[in-house]
Amino acid sequence: MKNNILSALGAFICISMLAFLNTFDETNLWLIPPFGASMVLVMAVHESPLAHPKNILFGHILSAFAGVFVFSILGSSFISLGLAVGLAIFLMMATKTVHPPAGANPIIAILGAKGISFILMPVAIGASFIVLFAIIYNKVLKRKYFTFKDLKKVTK
Which of 1, 29, 52, 66 reaches 20 to 30 Å from 116, CA-CA? Predict the structure, then answer.
């Protein structure tokens, strides 16, 4: 029960911080719905490979790229939506950075007619914020999340 409360509290704090930042900047969006799902992974199943920082960061970036890329070529249609999500899955699998919440990014990019700046803000900056928050929060709680030893294993 204690772990459930601490996980919920962490998600509350991180998403509230992103939402708060959103109130100061009317030109940039800091918060997108997939970040809520990312919080479930980093707070509730933080030891899952799907919650690993590289998966969160690159999964979100590659998926946003897929949406922006397909939209720039095909515009918005039922075909472009399906193609962009399929491309996102392919890219995440090919780079071993699968992060299921990121699968929504291409849909947001296409339905919102997003350009290349969407990949940086909110996607890359927001995902980085979540990763940094999760590393710090889980370390404070002495929960196994990500260590630089894990990074050395991944890069070998």
Answer: 52
Residue-wise pLDDT tens digits, 59-74: 999 999 999 999 999 9
CA distances from 35 to 42, 99, 156 (A): 10, 11, 29
Tokens encoding 37: 């799902």
* The predicted structure's pLDDT at residue 150: 55
| Orientation angle between helical segments 53-74 and 125-140, nearest 10 degrees | 170
Both tokens of 77, joined, read: 């249609």
Q: Position of tokens 């799907």?
A: 50
DSSP symbols for 16-78:
HHHHHHHHH-SSS----THHHHHHHHHHHSTTSGGGSHHHHHHHHHHHHHHHHHHHHHH-SSH
